[in-house]
Amino acid sequence: MFRKLTIGIALLLTCFVCLHIYCGVQIRQLILKTLISNDLENLELPIFKVKPLVIWAIDFHATPAYDLMMFLKPMGVTFIYRNYDKERTRCATKDNCNSSDTLKAVVPANLINLNYEDIPRFYQAYKDDPVMNSVDAFVCYHLVSLCELYEPFNKSLIIIATLRYEYGRFGKERWTTWNRNLIKYASQPRNVVGANNLYDAEYIKYFTGIQPQHLPNWGNYTNHTYSASRSGFLMPHCPSEGFRKLFLKNFTEICKNVNCSINLMYVRQKYPHYKYADIAAHQGIVYVPYQVSVMSFFEQYRMNIPIFAPSRELLAQWEIEHNVMYWKRWNRKSKRSDIEPHLSQRQVPDPNSYSEEAIRHWGKFCDYYQYPHITYYDSINDLIQLLQSISTKQLHSISAQMKLFNIEENKRLRKIWKNNLLKIADHSINHPH
Questions:
Q1: pLDDT per position as a tens digit, 279-296
Q2: What SS3 state is found at 100?
Q3: Which residue in 14, 182, 256, 407 has a CA-CA distance of 20 to 30 Å to 32?
């Protein structure tokens, strides 16, 4: 009887200790979550509580302006937004496929290579429009040169490059004219000139002497976070088909030779029309870059998914030998830029050169080398060893560190945008407040 009572008491104490530990962890997590939530909530409190700040956006990519709209909405910002992305799979994930919407005086498809005669026509069509009169600022992401269309309205311009800023202004004459205008816009206090990645910020500086703000996209619209509930690693979209096939072939052969059991899947084969939950469910993302910055990188990083990317040395080697970064240049036939650099940048290698010096210099500005907690591989052999040896615990640890970084990054970006928005409001005749 006494023995049974002793065992019973021991079991009861064990349960109590376990419950205490469990509740202690839960309470600590709750306190941490509350502190973080309160901190972010203070930053997200509407800046414009009575009258919203209104931004007009026309974009040719489904994500950048949409992301900014979602990011600034809690601050009391309203968007008048049209998306003309032809890639239906991108806009479908965000339910913003409205490419059939029309504009007064201009055809949306013609806005990329803007005819300067369309600028006064557009202005005349909208100058007395009540919706347009409510606008405090125009945002131009993809493409930034579209902001030339809005100059006559004498409102703030938010110019944020997501790719090389001469898009739509090709050729020496048009690019030079665009440079003059961009330098003028950057000199006006009511405007914001930036880039969502460091490469494009440095690229604009190289040709104009402007120092753009580095304003990364946030990507909080996915509403998913890393779960690692499905086995295998995903390789994101890579349009360089020849190199992609070569990479996967070499990976498979080496993996087979060392008897590894890693499952690396090309995302568009595994999920032709993926959902963010699908991406977050796998063990990690293995990048074979084709561009210096892509929106899916922001999405995946903000979902705290462990990312594996080639080292700077390996990416430089791939670019020199296989031209894997083919998509980072607009004029792919020329071996140099169509215009000269700004006087302050004469000692910097031409970013559009195929020289080894230029490739190595500009490669360091790619997004993959700007963020902490990314795991780098020096070869396919090295990648296989990393993926084979990394544990689930280590993957979750990386994800947790990414999450902490993202919390701080969120706060940092909100402070920057708060300052930008207040500056825009100060210069608006609509006086948002």
A1: 999 999 999 999 999 999
A2: coil
A3: 14
